[in-house]
C-alpha cells in the first residue's frame, strides 16, 4: 500500500501535468538540506539514502494506480500516457549515510528531467528527514552513553510501522547496539534483543514463579524485569533464584529496572546482586530515558550497564521534525533561488568540502558551487546515474562504522549535549556571487513581469 | 513488509514461547489507555480502531516469516508449531473512533488467550497511539479554525509512509476538510487537494509565466502560490492575470501565502484582490502553522479563509507521543495490577460511563469495573468476537460526524487551547475496592514468595 505511486502530494501530479503540457521537461537540479539545527543540537547525521535509492530504482506506476488516476477525472490523457511505463532516469549525488552535517549543506543532490525531479520530492523528504532525524538523535544518545549498551525499544511509540522499522535501522547506523524490533533484524541485520514485560510477571501468581517460568523457556541472554511490584525485593528474588537456575545450567544475564529513582535503585540493586554473589549480572534501565537522562544517571554514578530507549528516540521527541527542504537549484542550465521571507536558499549545484585538523578532527566546512574546488574533502559523492546505483550500497555495518568514525572526529565541544555553537560553515565567494547573479536576473525578469 | 508478523518486539515472541511451554494460555484481558494528558491539553480523541481491527482480522504468519523464525535458532519447535496457522481468536470492546476521552479511561479492551493477547500489544499500541495522537491534535486545530478550511500538508514531514497516510485519515476524522496526500483519497476517501510549489514558480522565467502555465494545465480549483519572490507583487500579478484567464474560462479560486508576516500580508493581499475586482478569490495560508498560530492569526483579524498544516499536525509536534499503555488487567479470571512506582494501574475489566448536562454537553465520566453500571452512557462497545468484527465498521464520514458531535459536546472551557483542568473523571467505589483486593492478594503472594 505504502509503495504506491499515489503516496505523494496531489500538487506533484498537478505540476507534473503542467510541466508536460508546457514542454517544461529540461533537466532540473534539486537539493535536500536542513535550514537550521533544532535548539540544543550541534550537528546532524545523514541517514536514509539507501531507502531513497531503493525508492528511485523501483519507482513505477502500477496498473491499479494508473486506472485510479485516469478514473479520478482530474488528470489529462497526456499525463496518464506519460505515467505508463514511468521510471526515474536521473542521477543522484549524496553524503554517505552516517556523515555528520550542518544547516544549509545539501546532503543529496538530484538531477533529472523536471517532472521526475519534482514528483519524487514528497517521498524523498519523507524518507530522508525521518531517518536523519533518528540517526541524529541516536548519535547524541551514543555520546551520552559512552561504551554502555543502547537498545531501541521504540516500535510501539513510533508513528506507524515504517517509522518503527526505519528508526531501528537509523538508530543502529548511528551507534545503537540492537533493537527490540524483530523485523529490523530480518530486513536490515540489526541485532534483535528482548527482555520480558510487566504483563508476564502479573500473569503469574508470584514474581518468582514468573522468573522461573521465563528463565526455563528463554535461558539465553536471560534478562529479568524486576520492578513490577518492588524493585529491591525483585533483586533479592533474583539472588535467591540464581543458585537453583545455575543448577539447571541457566545463568541470569541481566536485570531490568523500568521505574522509580533509577540512581538509588541501581546502586541498591548492584549491592544486592554483588552481595548475593552475582557481580556478573548486568543492570539495564529503561522508562522515559533520553540522552540527558542517560548522562545525568551516569554522572550521578548509577551502576547501569545498558539502556533501553523508546519514545524519545523513535519520535526524536525534542525535535520531531527538521526545518528542511528539497529545493530547485537549477533548471535548464540556469541557477534558481527561492527568496521568500526567512526561507531564501543558496542557488545552483553545490558541493560541501570539509577540512580536518592535525588530529583528524573536523575543522570547518565550505559550501560552494559544485565546480569550484575548496580546501578539504568533498562530501557529496555520485551514487546513481540513469536511475541506477553506481555500485552496491555500503552495508549497514559499513555505514555504522563510518558514523562511528564521524563521531570520533567531532570537535570536543560538539560532543556536549548542549549547544556549543562552534562549528564553522563558510559560504564560498563563488556561491555568493552566483546568488547575486540569480537575484539580478530575477529582479530584471520580475520588473519586466510587473 | 510492514504487515509482517515480525513487526513486533522480540520479547513478545519470547513471552509467547514461555506462556506456551508453561501452559499459560488462559484468557487474558488487556486494556489500552493514556496515563496523562500532554501539557496544555484538555482532552484526547480516540482514533485508529479500524486499523487495529483490520490488523486483528488479517493477522497470520507467512511461510517466509515462519521459516525465518525457525531458522533464527531462537525459538522452540513448540512455538513454531503454534504459529503455523496462527490467527487472532479474541474479542474487543472499544470507544468508537472520534470519541473524546481522558487519562486512565480505557479506549480499547481486548480479551483473548494470553499468548495472542500479549503478542498483539506492539502493533495495537503502534496504531492506536499514533492515530489518536493525530486526531487529538487535529481537533484542537479545528477548534481554533472555526469554519475555515483545514488541509493536511504533512506527508513529507511525517515519520515514514504509513504515518503520512494514517495522519491524513486521523486528521480528516477529527475535523480536517482534506489532505494533500493522494493515497489517502484512494484508501480512505479523504478528499485530496493541492496547490503548487515554489519550485514550479522558480522553474519559469517569470512568476506570471508560471501562473499562466499552471492555470491552463490545472484550471479547476485553481490556487496560485504568490510568495516565491514578493507576496504583494505576486497578488498584483494575480489581479492583472485574472481578466485574461477569465476570457479563457478560467477562474482563480485562491492564492496561497507561505512565508512572512501572515497578518500584515493577508490584509494587504485581501485589499489588492478586492480592489482588483477579485473579492471571491480566497486566501490560504501555510508555513509552520499550528493551532496557536491559527488562533493568533484569526484573533489579529487576518482575512485568511483556509490553512494548510504540515509538520505540527503530522508529528503532533508539541506531544509526539503519549504516555500510554496496553496493560494486563485480568488473567485466568483474576484481576491484575502493575504497581511500579509512578505507573500503577487500575485493575480488572473496566467500562467508562459519561453523563451529560441539560444542553447535551459532557458533564463527567465514571470509570468502574465492567459489571458495575453507573449513571450515564457506557462508552466502550463490543466490536469484535472470535477474531471477527461484529458488524461493518462505521464509514470514515460517520466517524467524522461522531467526532464533530463530540467536539460540540465539549464543556465551553475545554474548547480553549490552554489547559482548563476542568473535566471530572471519577473512579467508582467498586473499582477502588477491586484495586485493594488485588493489592492484598499481591502482598500475600509476595510475602509467601519472599
Walkthrough of the structure:
Two copies of one chain form a homodimer. Chain A is α/β, with parallel strands linked by helices and 450 residues long. Chain A has two domains: 10-134 and 322-449, Alpha-Beta Barrel (nicotinate phosphoribosyltransferase); 136-314, Alpha-Beta Barrel (TIM Barrel). In chain A, 41% of the residues lie in helices and 19% in strands. The first copy, chain A, has 16 helices and 19 strands. Chain A has helices at residues 10-21, 49-58, 63-71, 77-83, 114-119, 121-145, 161-173, 182-188, 198-203, 207-217, 231-247, 262-275, 291-299, 311-314, 396-408, 429-449, and strands at 27-36, 44-45, 91-94, 100-101, 108-113, 149-152, 178-179, 222-225, 252-257, 282-286, 306-309, 323-331, 334-335, 350-356, 362-369, 377-378, 381-385, 388-389, 425-427. Chain A has a seven-stranded antiparallel β-sheet with strand order 13-12-1-5-3-17-18. A six-stranded parallel β-sheet of chain A has the order 7-6-11-10-9-8. A four-stranded mixed β-sheet of chain A has the order 16-14-15-19. In chain A, helix 2 runs antiparallel to helix 6 (121-145). In chain A, 55% of the residues are buried. Chains A, B: Keywords: Glycosyltransferase, Ligase, Phosphoprotein, Pyridine nucleotide biosynthesis, Transferase. Chains A, B: Residues 388-409 are annotated as: Disordered. Chains A, B: It holds the Pfam family NAPRTase_N. Chains A, B: Belongs to the NAPRTase family. Chains A, B: Residues 150-329 form the Nicotinate/nicotinamide phosphoribosyltransferase domain.
Amino acid at each position: 500500500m505504502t509503495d504506491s505511486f499515489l503516496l505523494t502530494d496531489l500538487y506533484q501530479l498537478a505540476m507534473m501535468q503542467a510541466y508536460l503540457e508546457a514542454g517544461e521537461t529540461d533537466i532540473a537540479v534539486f537539493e535536500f538540506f536542513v535550514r537550521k539545527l533544532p535548539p540544543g543540537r550541534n550537528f546532524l547525521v545523514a541517514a536514509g539514502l539507501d531507502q531513497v535509492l531503493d525508492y528511485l530504482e523501483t519507482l513505477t506506476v502500477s496498473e491499479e494506480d494508473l486506472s485510479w488516476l485516469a478514473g479520478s477525472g482530474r488528470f489529462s490523457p497526456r499525463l496518464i500516457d506519460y505515467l505508463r511505463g514511468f521510471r526515474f532516469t536521473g542521477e543522484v549525488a549524496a553524503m554517505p549515510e552516517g556523515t555528520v552535517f550542518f544547516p544549509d549543506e545539501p546532503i543529496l543532490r538530484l538531477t533529472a528531467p523536471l517532472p521526475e525531479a519534482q514528483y519524487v520530492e514528497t517521498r524523498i523528504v519523507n524518507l530522508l528527514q525521518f531517518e536523519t532525524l533518528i540517526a541524529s538523535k541516536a548519535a547524541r544518545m551514543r555520546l551520552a552513553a559512552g561504551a554502555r549498551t543502547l537498545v531501541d525499544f521504540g516500535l510501539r511509540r513510533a508513528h506507524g510501522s515504517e517509522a518503527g522499522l526505519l528508526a531501528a535501522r537509523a538508530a543502529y547506523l548511528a551507534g545503537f547496539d540492537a533493537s527490540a524490533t524483530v523485523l529490523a533484524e530480518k530486513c536490515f541485520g540489526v541485532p534483535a534483543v528482548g527482555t520480558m514485560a510487566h504483563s508476564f510477571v502479573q500473569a503469574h501468581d508470584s514474581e518468582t514463579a514468573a522468573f522461573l517460568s521465563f528463565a526455563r523457556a528463554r535461558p539465553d541472554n536471560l534478562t529479568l524485569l524486576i520492578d513490577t511490584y518492588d524493585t529491591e525485593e525483585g533483586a533479592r528474588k533474583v539472588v535467591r533464584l540464581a543458585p537453583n537456575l545455575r543448577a539447571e545450567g541457566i545463568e541470569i544475564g541481566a536485570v531490568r529496572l523500568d521505574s522509580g529513582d533509577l540512581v538509588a535503585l541501581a546502586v541498591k540493586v548492584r549491592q544486592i546482586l554483588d552481595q548475593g554473589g552475582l557481580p556478573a549480572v548486568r543492570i539495564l534501565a529503561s522508562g522515559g530515558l533520553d540522552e540527558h537522562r542517560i548522562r545525568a544517571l551516569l554522572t550521578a554514578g548509577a551502576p547501569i550497564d545498558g539502556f533501553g530507549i523508546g519514545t524519545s528516540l523513535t519520535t526524536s521527541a525534542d525535535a520531531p521534525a527538521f526545518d528542511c527542504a528539497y529545493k530547485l537549484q537549477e533548471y535548464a542550465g540556469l541557477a534558481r533561488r527561492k527568496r521568500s521571507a526567512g526561507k531564501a536558499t543558496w542557488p545552483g549545484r553545490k558541493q560541501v568540502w570539509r577540512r580536518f585538523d592535525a588530529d583528524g578532527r573536523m575543522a570547518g566546512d565550505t559550501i560552494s558551487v559544485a565546480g569550484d574546488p575548496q580546501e578539504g574533502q568533498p562530501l557529496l559523492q555520485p551514487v546513481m546515474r540513469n536511475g541506477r546505483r553506481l555500485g552496491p550500497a555500503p552495508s549497514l555495518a559499513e555505514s555504522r562504522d563510518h558514523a562511528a568514525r564521524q563521531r570520533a572526529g567531532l570537535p570536543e565541544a560538539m560532543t556536549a549535549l548542549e549547544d556549543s555553537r562552534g562549528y564553522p560553515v563558510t559560504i564560498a565567494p563563488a556561491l555568493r556571487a552566483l546568488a547575486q547573479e540569480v537575484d539580478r536576473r530575477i529582479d530584471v525578469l520580475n520588473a519586466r513581469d510587473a
